[in-house]
Design brief:
There is one protein chain. The chain is of the alpha/beta class. It contains seven helices and seven strands, in the order ββαβαβαβαβααβα. Strands 1, 2, 3, 4, 5, 6 and 7 form a seven-stranded parallel β-sheet that branches. The longest helix has 26 residues. About 30% of the residues are buried. This is F-box protein.
Length: about 200
């Protein structure tokens, strides 16, 4: 089953909720008014989207008093969408504060991920109502932050082949290059294991 709502047509969150009963949903491309991690968890946290292979999830804004999706929240999809190979998603933030960056570091070193996804392609976009937010956030980050973000993305999606961000700034480029390096190391390790 495929649901494709033309970009530019925004559906309310309450309408979006009805899609969690679509257990054979394979492709979803939709623009909704607002989304939180808790709501995303309700949509797919019990395996409702186990067949979903491609997800384009675009949000316009963050509702007053709520927090939109962050990079950390992609874990929900990594753990509950085993067929997902393409993800195009709007985030409010990557990891805004030093504490948020530490959460990413801690997840990689301390948590046990139940990742079941074979995600290959990840496109991250900003909220449509605030198109410069992610680029502005990146301008405030340092190399250590980029390492934490790259490690987290690779930890979530170890088979990732392509990642894109809203702009081509050096910080985003550094993350992409680190992910390429991680993939090279994995290929070398796999070829060494196969020859032994």
């Amino acid at each position: 089953m495929r649901v494709d709502v033309t970009v530019g047509i925004q559906i309310p969150w309450k309408t979006f909720v009805s899609l969690n009963v679509c257990q054979r949903l394979e492709c979803l491309d939709v623009c909704i008014d607002h989304l939180t991690a808790e709501r995303l968890g309700r949509m797919c946290g019990k395996g409702e989207w186990h067949a979903l292979a491609a997800l384009g999830l675009y949000c316009n804004r963050v509702k007053l008093g709520e927090t939109g999706l962050s990079l950390y929240d992609l874990r929900i999809l990594a753990e509950h969408c085993p067929s997902l190979t393409i993800l195009d998603i709007t985030l409010e933030t990557l990891a805004k504060t030093a504490d948020d960056i530490q959460v990413l570091r801690d997840a990689v070193t301390k948590d046990r991920l139940q990742s079941k996804t074979n995600l290959r392609t990840l496109h991250i976009a900003p909220l449509t109502s605030r198109p410069d937010d992610l680029s502005s956030e990146a301008a405030q980050k340092n190399t250590r932050d980029a390492v934490a973000v790259a490690r987290y993305i690779y930890w979530l999606f170890p088979y990732i082949n392509e990642v894109s961000f809203p702009t081509t700034c050096d910080w985003f480029g550094g993350i992409i290059n680190m992910l390429k390096g991680f993939r090279s190391i994995r290929r070398e390790e796999n070829s060494t294991e196969n020859t032994n």
